[in-house]
Amino acid sequence: MAGAAVRVEHLTKVFPDGTRALDDVSFEVRPGDFLVIIGLSGSGKSTLMRCINRLIEPTSGKIFLDDVEVTALRPKELRALRRQIGMIFQQFNLVKRSSVLTNVLSGRLGYVPPGWAMTNYFPRDLRRRAMENLTRVGIPEKAHNRADALSGGQQQRVGIARALMQEPRLILADEPVASLDPATSHSVLRHVEDLNRNDGITVLCSLHFLSLARRYGTRIIALKGGRVVFTGLPADIDEARFKAIYGEEAVEVEIA
Amino acid sequence: MAQETAQPAPVAPPAPPAIPRPRGRPWAIVLWLAALVVIYVYGWQITNINVGDLITKAYLVKPLVRDLLRPDVLTWAPRLQSVEVPFSFTAPAPAPPPAQPVAPAPASGPRLTLSTATARPGDPLIVRGEGFAPNRPGTIIWRDQSGSSAKAAEFGTDGAGRFEISLTVPDMIGEQHTLFAQVTLEGRTLRPSNTLNLVFFRIIETIFLALMGTTMGVFFAVPLSFLGAKNLMARSAAAKVVYYVTRTILNILRSIEPLIMAVVFAVWVGIGPFAGVLALGLHSIASLGKLYSEQIESIETGPIEAITATGASALQVIRYAVVPQIVPPFIAFTIYRWDINVRASTIIGFVGGGGVGFLLNQYINLFQWQAAATAVWGITLVVAVMDYFSAAVRERVI
């Protein structure tokens, strides 16, 4: 299945307390892109991600997934659309007391009849696919462990397997490696890269480290104070642009 | 503190900056220690602490402790040969008996024969038996309709195992009665004592009393806990009012001792286990309600967000992201509460809440220390088992 194109037009989000998290944000993502979003904490990266699958309702502006206007969908249509958008989180967001297998299978909830899910019933072919996805991220032997018994990197890989169950055309990765050590960060990002390169899934990924952004991103946008301050190729971010994004006192830190 | 930022004048020698002290002045610590001494001296006096009494008065407690260490558990019971026949004051017994009713016993075994199966109190009655053990003493026991028994006569069997005795029909309650002939055989058997039987059934009653009280608590605490969870009820002013009202009710209920509640309910519905169920139930609502709602408040929103993002419906989100977070702790709290309620119901029994505590209270009031010891050891055993069981379950589900 081909990756999805995303188009964001004049997106603005003002929270009830008056915080203007996103201010007239517009950009485009081509199918198969690995778009990295960089910016300081609080620059609006997470809000932007959550507006795309409407975990957060935008205040104004439009979002298109291919030709579907996400911002105009009714709840039922929105649920159907969310199935195409996998999401990976900084804190992994697994259900800690459930098994790894249940966590992976829960990625399929948007597809199965509601009655099945109530009794935790998943047919054989779904269970097999869950195991295949766990094998793909390298931890099939953990299927019956509790999710919180896994290390951070392993939990994030479960998160990727869960997103894979959706057969997504777009993956939103909200700082997927911010809670992980450098070596594990690369291992997790390589899995995401694999989905992007080999399955053609479009990826929107927010990252803290410019070195990671340069290494994995095909394109980069930078947010500052809720506005887009840079759009372009990873190689285009020089010292001057870096200071414009992160402030005058910032010094770039390399991650191995 | 402020001096640190002050600029010293260039001509004067620089004043040494004030050095900050750690909190807690030395003289304040001495004062605190003195206050503690005064508090403990007063406490020692007001509670009549006299360590010497522990040794000089030990002889008073010695017999009690000795009895407590010898619980009444087993008794030697005589072996009995027993046969029963029905008897009526007015009409014949439900099944029309023959003129000479014969006990429903095998032809070879002991049999009992009455001169008549129907007579009025004061009438003469001849009881004959055969097939009993030879040359042994026996008794005729009369049980009336209310179930209470009285010894009606004593006899001895002859060398052939027969006896014949005449007695006067006693004046007893009801119309339908039963006569027993019991012959004491040689030797005796070791059996659980009456006390042990009573304690056993009262402990079963206690466990179920605690179970029913806990169930009552769960039944009301689950809905209340959602109303008393801050994260759910912070949405509107009306919801906040519900939250504060719920929390206040739970706090007040929790601060009333179950013992007091048991006294009230024993007056209300009468002394017995039901009063205990109500008292423990009401207290359990309060304590479980608080524990449950704290659990709901500590729920992680991340998994909810993640499951929502997969396109799951609201019901599926609850099933996969909320239920796994609250149900195992709810189960753990509930089992723990049951465990606590078993302990509490012992005390509740003292004030009329039924269960083994009621029995223990009677034994203590009658100075039957060995019987009391049976109850105490029984309670100890059950509490220890419950404690182990609830800990094991908690470890598994959390």
3D structure, described in words:
The complex is a heterodimer of chains A (256) and B (398). Chain A is of the alpha/beta class and 256 residues long. Chain A contains nine helices and ten strands. Chain A has helices at 45-52, 75-82, 100-105, 114-118, 124-136, 152-165, 182-198, 210-216, 239-246; strands at 6-14, 20-29, 34-38, 60-65, 68-69, 85-88, 170-174, 202-206, 219-224, 227-232. In chain A, a hairpin with a 5-residue loop joins strand 1 and strand 2. In chain A, helix 6 (152-165) runs parallel beside helix 7 (182-198). The radius of gyration of chain A is 18 Å and the shape is globular. The mean pLDDT of chain A is 90. Chain B is α+β, with helices and mostly antiparallel strands and 398 residues long. Chain B contains twelve helices and seven strands. Chain B has helices at residues 26-46, 51-56, 58-68, 194-227, 230-233, 237-255, 258-269, 273-297, 302-309, 314-350, 356-365, 369-397, and strands spanning 74-88, 111-114, 124-130, 137-143, 149-156, 163-168, 176-192. In chain B, the strands form two sheets. A four-stranded antiparallel sheet of chain B has the order 1-7-4-5, with helices on one face. A three-stranded antiparallel sheet of chain B has the order 2-3-6, with no helix packed on it. In chain B, a hairpin with a 5-residue loop joins strand 4 (137-143) and strand 5. Chain B is elongated, with a radius of gyration of 36 Å. The two termini of chain B are 50 Å apart. Mean pLDDT of chain B is 84; it is low at 1-6. The interface between A and B is medium-sized, with 34 and 20 residues.
Low-pLDDT ranges of chain B: 1-6
What profile does the largest beta sheet of chain B have?
4 strands, antiparallel
Q: Helix count of chain B, per DSSP? A: 12
Strand order of the largest sheet of chain A: 6-7-8-3-9-10
Measured by DSSP, the beta-strand proportion of chain B falls in 15-25%
Beta-strand fraction estimate of chain A? 15-25%
